[in-house]
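re: ur question from earlier - yeah i can do the single chain one, its not a big deal. heres the input i used so u can compare w yours
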Amino acid sequence: MRVAIEARALASRGSGGRSYAQNLIDCLRQQGLGDQLHVLAKGPQSTALLPWWLNYTVPKWLTGLKPELVHFTKAAVPLRKKFPTVVTIYDIIPILLPQSQRLWARLWWPTTLKRAAQTSDHIITISQASKHDIVERFTIDPGTITVTPLALDRRQWQPASAEQIASVTKKYHLQKPYLITVNTVEPRKNLPALIRAFSQIAGNVEHTLVIVGGEYKGASAVGREVSRLGLSDRVVQLGFVGGSDLPALYSGAAVGVWPSVYEGWGFPAQEAMACGTPVVVSDGGSLPEVVGQAGQVVPFSVVNLTERLHDQDFEQRLSVAMRENLLDDERADEGRELRLAQARVHSWGEIARQTLAVYKKVADV
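and the output i got, formated as tokens:
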């Protein structure tokens, strides 16, 4: 079976889409596709060229290849479908929370997601939460959607040694005990709420709050909240950190916190658990699926995603959960094995097997 995979996410820096595409391709090759798997890894030079690339460059490549099936791994498909098509839609956040997106994405994604969902032969998504949203928003038959929860590369994500932790914390000048959050800085991640919750316990703990992640949108709001609450000496923003340093940063943290109003999956919380770190998450989207019984889930008081950005009751509950985890060493030790096991529930081998089964069904082989 000749399969074409559109995998422009491979060119992205440190993204979940890149991890998905790379691990899936590697495991599909190991499971028998081999040289029958053809990958288009180079996308357009800029997002402005994406429509042209998707509707002219990609179809030209496919016409020459003549695959039995094509898999688009980043939620967008050409206007005209020429071959049996599978699409991966991670989530529909641009529709659910458009203010979290830059202008181009707000204009591009709503129509693009709808077309991908309604014209593809089969949809792969990464959580039950995302499946529910796709079915409800686009009136899709649930039987045409397969959920493949995401996995980690176990060679990378594991507890770091004391020496590795000491080296990395020295590199980033982290001298106090700390709690950590790793996110792209954008409104959906709800970082101002995290800072407000942290301010409620800052006088009772000695920890600093370490924020890791590159800026996308809304970084100024984070800085303003830190200044307003007088937390400049207690909140450290590291910006983007390469994957080689993250396991030690997670391992050295007393707790990892993710208060997102919505997540299609939640790799960082999964990564932290794989490093043995206690995690506190919101009930936004798939996060309860990610942590299972191994993490503490703090529920929002409201359903509306925009209102969740200013949910004071949630912030109060979040501060209590953080304080309990920071002050209870026994809880952290007791839950360690459960966290490690939860982070490894899913494997890329199993994800590849499920994906291959979808291919065979769609291609009728």
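Residues 16-33 form the longest helix (18 residues). not sure if urs matches, ping me
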